[in-house]
């Protein structure tokens, strides 16, 4: 996750502090990067990651049987199909609307979509595995709902960081990275928040932010340059399978309960 957050500095001159939104098949978090090894965790997914959810929805819609989508990942297939659909066909509610924090949730939405697909299969007289004529509308509605959820949490994170003087009041940088950040619709939704808050959105090129080898190597270079955590002896090192990212201040964020202004998500 640290490597994910820092990869942007491989291609752009981004100074600390900046806000990082990491959205992939396995992770979903908002963190403030204050230094190479200095992070504040503002919020994370309480269940599954957005990419995992999009992959499950795509599988449920059998998009691998769609001639235009068979070679795509679930998220890519939904983005592609959503262009042909109407996002207003189904009224899916963004998750956790009442919780004024920066945490995320995707499994509830996934179950709602599962039920919707089942209902459409009945209506259209299709078996599981057959393509639905409503698939593009479902893809558009799901993508829109996920984009709004990510955008609203990011909006709150910016306001929280500014309230605490953790980010500059103007021209702050927000970095979106991970496989899901390559979704152009999601980037546009984040763009609406950037306009409203006068922030700049940066997204490392997908070729970099999906290559763990490059990301970890860059993380090593950053640490070497900063003289942080680079050991010259391997003797006595203890390995841990999981390492939390920075200091978790998600409780402070929830306690601040910042109300975010409604933005028109006209994308
Ligand atoms: O960061 P990543 O390559 O790797 C891991 O999570 O391991 O992310 C992969 C995830 C998959 O769930 C995939 O469906 C999603 O990113 N993804 C997308 C798009 N391209 C890949 N999700 C939404 N829109 C896309 N265009």
UniProtKB/TrEMBL annotation:
Keywords, alphabetical: Acyltransferase, Metal-binding, Transferase, tRNA processing
The protein, known as: N(6)-L-threonylcarbamoyladenine synthase
Protein EC: 2.3.1.234
Chain ranges of the Gcp-like domain: 1-218
Taxonomic lineage: Eukaryota, Metazoa, Chordata, Craniata, Vertebrata
Reaction(s) catalysed by this chain's protein: L-threonylcarbamoyladenylate + adenosine(37) in tRNA = N(6)-L-threonylcarbamoyladenosine(37) in tRNA + AMP + H(+)
InterPro entries documented for this protein: ATPase_NBD, Gcp-like_dom, KAE1/TsaD
Species, as recorded: Erinaceus europaeus
Superkingdom of the source species: Eukaryota
């Amino acid at each position: 996750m640290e490597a994910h957050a820092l990869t942007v500095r491989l291609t752009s001159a981004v100074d600390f502090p900046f806000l990082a939104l990491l959205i992939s098949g396995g992770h979903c978090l908002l963190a403030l990067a204050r230094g190479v090894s200095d992070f504040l965790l503002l919020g994370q997914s309480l269940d599954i990651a957005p990419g995992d959810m999009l992959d499950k929805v795509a599988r449920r819609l059998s998009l691998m049987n769609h001639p235009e989508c068979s070679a795509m990942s679930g998220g890519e297939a939904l983005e592609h199909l959503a262009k042909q659909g109407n996002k207003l066909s189904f009224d899916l509610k963004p998750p956790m609307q009442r919780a004024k924090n920066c945490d995320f949730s995707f499994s509830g939405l996934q179950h709602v979509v599962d039920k919707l697909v089942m209902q459409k299969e009945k209506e259209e007289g299709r078996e599981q595995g057959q393509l639905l004529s409503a698939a593009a509308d479902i893809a558009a509605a799901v993508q829109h709902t996920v984009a709004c959820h990510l955008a609203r949490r990011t909006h709150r994170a910016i306001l929280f960081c500014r309230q605490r003087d953790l980010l500059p009041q103007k021209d702050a940088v927000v970095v979106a990275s991970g496989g899901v950040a390559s979704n152009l619709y999601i980037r546009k939704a984040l763009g609406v928040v950037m306009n409203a808050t006068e922030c700049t959105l940066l997204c490392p090129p997908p070729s970099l932010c999906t290559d763990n080898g490059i990301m970890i190597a860059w993380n090593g270079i950053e640490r070497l340059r900063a003289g942080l955590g680079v050991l010259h002896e391997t003797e006595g090192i203890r390995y841990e399978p999981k390492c939390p990212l920075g200091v978790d201040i998600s409780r402070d964020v929830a306690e601040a309960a910042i109300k975010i202004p409604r933005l028109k998500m006209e994308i």
